[in-house]
């Protein structure tokens, strides 16, 4: 089917210099990581560590920022612009993470504007979408992710540089992973949505990755689902078990 497996390691707001060095050492020392043509690995440290990690991380792994400002830089204290990331040679950015949607009140529209701007500057974007527990329990999961997707599709015409990360909020950092069937159901539905609202080619080629309590213990079964094209890993990306998660890509033929 030709969708290259994709694993992102989202370090979130974790790590100080010594810890960052240790994680990079573990990543650099990992043997038998499938080659780039089979597995795309993107590590996302906090902004302040991007230059250090860029200069010390193995060449077959790539880098993502965890956020970017919604438009050109300027008088926006505390923000980081897409131009700065491009200047530093950072190819990817994570946008729309639920922690930012919920804690920093980023709306669907705002996230969509950020995605469009980042793409316009040449960044590739990991777009996060996902429902809360309350929304799932009231049967709204698919409606919520479709709305999140619709906002983005209203502002984006080229999907070639987008990876979609389905991250149910109730599974993030809770140890309560979605079952493989739950993940597959939403991923298949997202692909159906893309097919009818964008086009069949985008539906077939966009990678849809799962995030939320992925560990070395559950990654193989999740990776075995036909519409799960990889993972966005939080907590476990700070640990040596991340290497086992990378190897879950081997279940894809
Ligand atoms: O939010 C996540 C990745 O972006 C998932 O976090 P956890 O893997 O810690 O649940």
TrEMBL record:
Pfam family, one: TIM
InterPro entries, per the entry: Aldolase_TIM, TIM_sf, TrioseP_Isoase_bac/euk, Triosephosphate_isomerase, Triosephosphate_isomerase_AS
Highest rank taxon of the organism: Eukaryota
Keyword hit for Isomerase: yes
Keywords assigned: Isomerase
Protein's UniProt keywords contain Signal: no
GO MF terms, alphabetically ordered: triose-phosphate isomerase activity
One GO BP annotation of this record: glycerol catabolic process
Pathways per UniProt: Carbohydrate biosynthesis
Any one of the GO CC terms: cytosol
Subunit and interaction comment: Homodimer.
Family membership: Belongs to the triosephosphate isomerase family.
Protein's name in the database: Triosephosphate isomerase
């Amino acid at each position: 089917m030709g969708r290259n497996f994709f694993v992102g390691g989202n370090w979130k707001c974790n790590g100080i210099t010594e810890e960052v060095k240790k994680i990079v050492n573990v990543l650099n020392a990992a043997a038998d990581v499938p080659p780039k043509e089979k597995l795309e690995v993107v590590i996302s440290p906090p902004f302040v560590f991007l230059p250090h990690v860029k200069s010390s991380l193995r060449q077959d792994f790539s880098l993502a920022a965890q956020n970017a400002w919604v438009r050109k830089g300027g008088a926006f204290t505390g923000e980081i612009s897409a131009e700065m990331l491009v200047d530093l040679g950072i190819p990817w950015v994570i946008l729309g993470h639920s922690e930012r949607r919920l804690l920093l009140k980023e709306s669907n529209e705002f996230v969509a504007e950020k995605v469009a701007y980042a793409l316009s500057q040449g960044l590739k974007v990991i777009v996060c979408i996902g429902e809360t527990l309350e929304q799932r329990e009231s049967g709204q999961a698919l409606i919520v992710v479709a709305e999140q997707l619709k906002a983005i599709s209203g502002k984006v015409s080229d999907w070639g540089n987008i990876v979609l990360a389905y991250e149910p909020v109730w599974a993030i950092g809770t140890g309560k992973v979605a079952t493989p069937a739950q993940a597959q159901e939403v991923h298949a539905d997202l692909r159906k949505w893309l097919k009818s609202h964008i086009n069949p080619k985008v539906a077939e080629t966009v990678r849809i990755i799962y995030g939320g309590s992925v560990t070395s213990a559950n990654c193989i079964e999740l990776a075995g689902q036909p519409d799960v094209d990889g993972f966005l890993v939080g907590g476990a990306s700070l640990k040596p078990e991340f290497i086992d998660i990378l190897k879950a890509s081997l279940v894809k033929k």
